[in-house]
From TrEMBL:
Entry annotation: catalytic residues: 70, 73, 130
Pfam family, one: Peptidase_S11
Protein's recorded name: serine-type D-Ala-D-Ala carboxypeptidase
Function comment: Removes C-terminal D-alanyl residues from sugar-peptide cell wall precursors.
Positions contributing to substrate binding: 246
EC number: 3.4.16.4
InterPro entries: Beta-lactam/transpept-like (IPR012338), Peniciliin-bd_prot_C_sf (IPR015956), Peptidase_S11 (IPR018044), Peptidase_S11_C (IPR012907), Peptidase_S11_C_sf (IPR037167), Peptidase_S11_N (IPR001967)
Leader peptide range in chain numbering: 1-34
Peptidase S11 D-Ala-D-Ala carboxypeptidase A C-terminal domain sequence ranges: 296-393
Pathway linked to the protein: Cell wall biogenesis; peptidoglycan biosynthesis
Record-level GO BP terms: cell wall organization; peptidoglycan biosynthetic process; proteolysis; regulation of cell shape
């Protein structure tokens, strides 16, 4: 709805309000298409995402479906934690190991068919050491079969809007590594954006998982297993603030890593896929994190129940008992902001209805869109401006004498 819908008596005011852009008072995240602060990354695909908002700050081939290797296990972790929260299973429940699970190789904790371990022990083996045998054991225990569990994984992927993901197993292994792979169609793939979204939702929905995935090592059957995430404290590629999430490797996928780090109140999620070596995935992640933390801050730009910065606090109500009404934002908007690009950010205010009485407090009358370099920022929803007070409609006699008084003032003004 445009300024044309305003009453004729305030048409010029409405037109002015619609056209104004407020320069230099706000900031917004830079879309991936304007990602000059970030380096070129030696990976098949990568993405940098701000955790609080889920906004992508940088990416390359981030929507291309690629083999994710053991980053797949983030979904297995998600489903296990979901079942624990619902009360369907408990951390200390015992899991009997099947011959099939015990036969899964690559990274493993050498489970033996017929023995029992707790869900907690198997979860730690999966999340910290990426143990494939422990992962399959959990999938079979929860769903009765890994094949059924994979159906759950794909259903959850759709629910989480992971549009470029399809799972064939619970581990991310190539089918050749399975003695009896789950039946299914399609390729086992996930995009870098989907992997970042999954990592974000895992931490957002189950923050307690950080206590497990940040462990530098675990002990299983008397043997110590180091976390494959070498960026954790005490590890060879230590990076301050890193506390997750999941590595991955197969010949087909290359070396992958979904990482996250928090500094100065801002958390970033990064994904690199298809790097050339174990150390390269951490080196490229380091470069992305450095660029993100050096160039962005997380700041509130619009405050709930407060006027829009740089904008008039009250707007006319031509037929109201009160001549004008206070307006304010209906929510706080926090965004990652480019430290060196403040002049490129603007507000665009668009009216969504006639501002005419009667008005009830809380009625939305306009939307605020944050722009970067004159363009709408992908993923940032408009903030509504609402009236802060109720305004009754004025009678015709009041309006007549008001117009008369205004006219007289104009004559002698």
């Amino acid at each position: 709805m445009s300024g044309r819908l305003f009453p004729l008596s305030v048409k010029m005011t409405a037109g002015f309000l619609m056209a104004v852009l407020f320069q230099g008072t706000v900031a917004a995240p830079v879309p991936a298409l304007a990602a000059e602060p970030f380096p070129e990354v030696k990976a098949k695909a990568h993405v940098v995402m701000e955790f609080e908002t889920g906004l992508v700050l940088d990416g390359h081939r981030e929507d291309e479906p690629l083999p994710p290797a053991s980053m797949t296990k983030m979904m297995t972790e998600y489903l296990v934690l979901e079942k624990i929260r619902s009360g369907e299973i408990g951390w200390e429940d015992r899991v009997r190991i099947s011959a099939r699970a015990a036969a899964i190789d690559e990274a493993q904790v050498y489970l033996i068919a017929g023995e029992e371990w707790t869900i907690r022990q198997l979860f730690e083996a999966m999340a910290v050491y990426s143990a494939n045998d422990a992962t399959v054991a959990l999938a079979e225990h929860l769903a009765g079969s890994e094949e059924t569990f994979v159906k759950w994984m794909n259903e959850k992927a759709k629910e989480l809007k992971m549009t470029n993901t399809h799972f064939r197993n619970s581990t991310g292994l190539n089918e050749a590594s399975y003695p009896n792979p789950p039946k299914g169609e399609g390729k086992h793939v996930m995009s870098a954006r989907d992997a970042a979204n999954l990592a974000r939702r895992l931490l957002l929905d189950f923050p307690e998982v950080k206590e497990i995935i940040a462990k530098p090592r675990i002990t299983f059957r008397g043997r110590e297993y180091a976390n494959w995430n070498r960026m954790l404290p005490g590890q060879s590629q230590f990076y301050r603030g890193v506390d997750g999430v999941k590595t991955g490797y197969t010949d087909e996928a290359g070396y992958c890593f979904a990482g996250t780090a928090e500094r100065d109140g801002m958390r970033l999620v990064t994904v690199v896929m298809g790097t050339g070596s174990q150390s390269a995935r951490f080196q490229e992640t380091r470069r992305l994190l450095d660029a993100g933390f050096e160039n962005y801050d997380l700041k509130p730009l619009i405050f709930e129940d407060k006027p829009l910065p740089g904008y008039m606090e009250r707007i006319p109500v031509p037929n109201g008992v009160a001549r004008d009404v206070a307006i304010a934002a209906d929510r706080t908007l926090v965004l990652p902001v480019r430290k060196d690009q403040m002049k490129k950010y603007t507000f665009r205010v668009t009216y969504t209805r006639n501002v005419v009485a009667p008005l009830t407090a809380g009625t939305p009358v306009a939307e605020v869109t944050v722009l970067y370099d004159g363009k709408k920022i992908p993923g940032v929803e408009p903030v509504r401006l609402v009236v802060r007070e109720s305004v009754e409609e004025a009678g015709w006699l009041r309006l007549f004498f008001r117009k008369l008084g205004d006219a007289i003032s104009g004559w002698f003004g």
